[in-house]
Amino acid sequence: MSSDSVSRRRFLRGAGGASLALPILPSLLPRSARAQDTGAAPCFIAMATHHGGLHGASMYPSDRTLSTVGTYAGRDIRAGAIVGELAGGERVVSDVLRASADRFTPSIAGSMSVLRGLDIPWYIAHHTGGHLGNFARNDGNGGDGLTMQSFPTPTIDRVMAWSPSFYPDPSGVVERSVSVGWQTMSFDHASPSGRSGPIQAQYAYASNLALFQRLFRPAEAFGRTSSLLVDRIRGQYTDLRGTAGISADDRRRLDEHVERLFDIERRLTLDVPCDPADPTIDTEALMWTETYFRDPDTQTLMWSLMNDIVVAAMACGLTRVASMLVGDTLSEYAGDWHQDIAHQAYLPGGDAQNTLVAAHQRFFEGIFLDLVEKLQATEMDGGDTLLDRALVSWTQESGQFPHASVGIPVVTAGAAGGAWQTGLYADYRDLDVTYPYGEELEGVDMPTDHPGLGWNQYLGSVLQAMGLSPGEYEDGETGGYGPWLVGADHGDDYDAAEAVLSEPLPIVMA
């Protein structure tokens, strides 16, 4: 077995002193390493957390690091280097973006980018679909949310997963994309290869054992399914599809089912070039413990173990796309998190904001940084790392205020094979226009917002960084990715932003 693709430094460290028993270090390798290695083919990992509500002063680096770099879409855009200060054994970029200095190294800080001023300029409220472009997956709060429910859209992870630009040869790929967690933010057509059928939520893996089996033992994952059984069903399918009187809708559903069946057949005979040991801890068992919902250490361990599987699979070339919706609060708070914390966090100086900051800091250090460390420790053929090839994004459900999607924070790590600029803080807000909040609260110094660039432009930029052209994903009506709407509260504030939706984001894609 050749060991050119992955070096001895490839050590996947589990959180809390526990580690995944993967003797793939460095033995999780393709049998023919150079044949499996796709050069600098990029990978995408989307991480998302619920709510948001972090004040800008808590989430972002200091504005002192910014300087104007040019005029774009009718506003001055600003940027600066990410500079972490050492304090008490930590490297501190902001109250949220801080971690132990021995883990949050200058190298990792230099691999990150922090983006401010990326907006969904309509009222979407509670949602899980907006992170990756299916704005229809919202709870229907307000007229804008209800309007968007009429426009279900595949999410960008699935668009790249079925793009020939991203996977020119998917023959060795076990899963084009995987969704991880006890909720999903990934959506696609019922027939993804034909881009047809209703938009459906993609199955999310809460068990690392099940995800491991699906990726590394695909034949076993499908139980007693055999090629002989699939061939028998293929014949029944051919006969049934030709039956007179079958409706177009029933024919479509039949085709969708058989498409999935044929994909199972492909996996039954797939020669997976890696043979690691099974995980020793079951994340699903962790989640069912009585105190899990208020145990941030166990929540962190759960996601760290999931990170292990994702990194190992990407290093082996079994997938290059993953989405991870982290629904855990990462807090010991045992009350009503939604009402008591998320809905009260906008009040300056309150305990709710402090609780929210602490929880997001735990996510950053224990889950996001954990994944980035493991990607960086994975050396690939040619001397680069998996982090060099990857783009990891962390997005939140809202901006500074509950349900408000102006200024959704975006934190990235990785260079996407050189397509994404790193080590910088970019601010796309139009500071000449101010959105005040809390005018009814006399004597309270509330934060303010300013309109930024469109979220659709950010999503399109991610797709471009993954090698897709706008012609592969734009619908011809608006630029960027997904349907575009400007809520009544924002008037003409996004006219200039709408005009540049097709363009790659300035600064990070310069």
Shape: globular
Bin the strand percentage: 15-25%
Low-confidence stretches: 1-38
Sheet bearing the most strands, described? Answer: 10 strands, mixed
User: How many independent structural domains?
Assistant: 2
Mean pLDDT, as a whole number?
86
Assembly of the depicted chains: single chain
Radius of gyration: 23 Å
Number of helical regions: 17
Strand order across the biggest sheet? 2-3-16-7-15-14-1-13-9-12
Alpha-beta classification? alpha/beta
N→C terminal distance = 41 Å
Number of strands: 19
- What percent of the residues sit in helical stretches (DSSP H or I)? 25-40%
Structure notes:
Residues 1-38 have low confidence and may be disordered. It contains 17 helices and 19 strands. The strands form five sheets. Strands 2-3-16-7-15-14-1-13-9-12 form a ten-stranded mixed sheet. The chain has a three-stranded antiparallel sheet with strand order 4-5-6. A two-stranded parallel ribbon has the order 8-19. The protein has helices spanning 33-36, 56-59, 106-110, 142-148, 156-161, 208-216, 218-221, 227-241, 248-268, 283-287, 296-316, 337-342, 351-376, 386-389, 455-465, 470-473, 495-498; strands at residues 43-49, 67-72, 75-81, 85-87, 90-92, 98-100, 112-116, 118-119, 178-180, 187-191, 196-201, 204-205, 321-326, 390-396, 410-413, 424-427, 435-436, 448-449, 453-454. It is globular, with a radius of gyration of 23 Å. The two termini are 41 Å apart. With 510 residues, the chain is an alpha/beta fold.
